[in-house]
């Protein structure tokens, strides 16, 4: 992982296999906790994937972003965390130099892809707020899949195996050069994080000050799109009530306008709720990973002058991994459509979702 024995490298510490880093009790505790994290991550994110593909309320094209994000978390739990756990408990790298290189690359890839996914989601929502009608018409499954492919391509380029990685018989260490640490932290976390926060601030500003004139010019929305988007989470329109009448075609009878207005209000409420949910997802991601990336960057800048306790560094590292199991919990707590879908999957209830 990104944190693989950074402190050990700086102090030239190398534990032989005969001296495990933790007592037996602590090792058992770590194994139990991490096993729960792995199982929670896999089960929770598989539920997210199944829910999006089986629930009518979650079948909007843009929710494919959530499927891809959940897939990245599943891959973290199956291809990265088990090896990090073994390394933590045994105190040395058991799996050879070839897998070490892949393991380090995969660790950086999945972490980077998570935040780049969140960036793409925030941009998607911003475009759909500022260009509500035109962008929503273009927001097809094919277009979203292209965006997801670009997200993964960017992540792969950023995480390409680095020649400076060190592999010995007992250690699997990522490139410890200052330039690499700072550039990887900037590209993998800080820059996308700043972009994501700025975009969400803009979304909030647009939501607070809707542009009624722009909506008036695009009031003749295709009536077919309303049935296509019925039940979607992301039928993006964060307008004020004072602007709602601009969304309705004027030739409709009063009763039809009232029904359309009611559907529009439902869509607006869903959109506002899910915009909040995604803001929570992004905030939790930043909170989970910021301590690690901050201390990792600090280590690169001042080295021996600001020694970071190894236990604290390891704690920050594992808190970052915990983020992989949190998104399904956030969806469950804050979104009714996901709650209903999860309940239907787990308990085979047949109420419409």
Automatic annotation (TrEMBL):
GO molecular function: alpha2-adrenergic receptor activity; epinephrine binding
This protein's name: Adrenergic, alpha-2D-, receptor b
Start and end residues of each G-protein coupled receptors family 1 profile domain: 44-331
Principal cellular location given in the protein's record: membrane
Chain segments carrying region Disordered: 1-20
Family designation: Belongs to the G-protein coupled receptor 1 family.
InterPro entries, alphabetized: ADR_fam, ADRA2C_rcpt, GPCR_Rhodpsn, GPCR_Rhodpsn_7TM
